[in-house]
Structure prediction request, 373 residues.
Amino acid sequence: MGPTDSSGSPLNQGFEGFFGYNCQRNAHSYYPPFLDDDAGTRALNDPPIPGHRKQLQGEVIDADYRGVSYAPDAILEEALQFIDRQREEGPFLLYLPFVEPHVAMHPPQAWLDRYPVEWDVELGAYRGENGYLPHSRPRAAYAAMISHLDDHVGKIVDALKQRGLYDRTVIVFTSDNGPTHEGSDARFSVGGAGCRFFQSTGGLRGAKGSCWEGGLRVPTIVRWPGVTNPGASSACLSYFPDWFPTLCRVAGVTLSPELELQLDGVDLSVALAGGGEPKRVGPMFWDFAEYGGIVAAREGKWKAIRRDVNKPQPLAWELYDIEADRAEEHNLAATHPEMVQRLEADFLKTRTVEPDFPNQLYDPLTPSAKAGR
Prediction:
């Protein structure tokens, strides 16, 4: 959201307390020098372990890249203490973004030991070729970090049960993006993660940093006592802007019609109750300034993507029927130009220019935007 001394600080955005990473650079290590604690910091590791390093020769020894205080454990402990306090204080919102399995790969040894040594015989040690830290068993390390995340989520669930809060608490588990992409050394994904080995995208095209389904489609699991049916699944299209109106509904907050018109998202409570999809006024949009600049729009089965919008030669729009072409292999833009034109027009009607996240093709007042049109 923003550093503690900025307007984007969680403490300036409605949160009453904050503990964790508040800096992407700091968050590349699981043994950082500190974590942010409300308006201050809490020291963790001296010396800290940097998140980036290469070891091109010699035996890779994982213990050389571990510190003393493991940040995810500290974040979990703070969350458990918060839940314990709330047992007496009443309703709460706990936003708990665990960082696993984001690289660098830093799993505890006990979790690494759960997985077969044979997984990593073929490729051997990861030496930092694609950034972040080396690891002697990169595939096992990737699995270990995901399992450790699962264990942390389980501890939160156990805490809610032990304190009599479980059946009065809505739990939402999801991810911010798909698995990381490949690096310059194609044997490994970025940071040595074993995404190809584990088929992490499930056959979808692309990965993190793209607007292909492999970068956008993520797991979402919701437990809402008395509303969600155990074991049920939904094909409802949704994205993160939907969670604000949905959580307002959970909390019993009534939004004014004026505010609802300003929101990009919709209340998902109907879908969570098994009642079908909520009515969405327009398409869902993604506008990504990095990786060359990407725009995507999704409405029903149709998904349009335009890439390299921040480069001198933007690529043409592509269009896919996701229901019939889950892997996005067949570009239908030439046969359905009217759909591409309408989605582009809707995107331009709703887009807000933001100088910190430029779109060189579509932003007004820029030479490239005029040339692109």
In short: The first strand starts at residue 19 and ends at 20. The beta strands are 19-20, 34-37, 40-43, 171-174, 220-223, 284-288, 294-299, 302-307, 318-321. The CA atoms of residues 6 and 12 lie 8 Å apart. The chain has two domains: 10-223, 284-372.
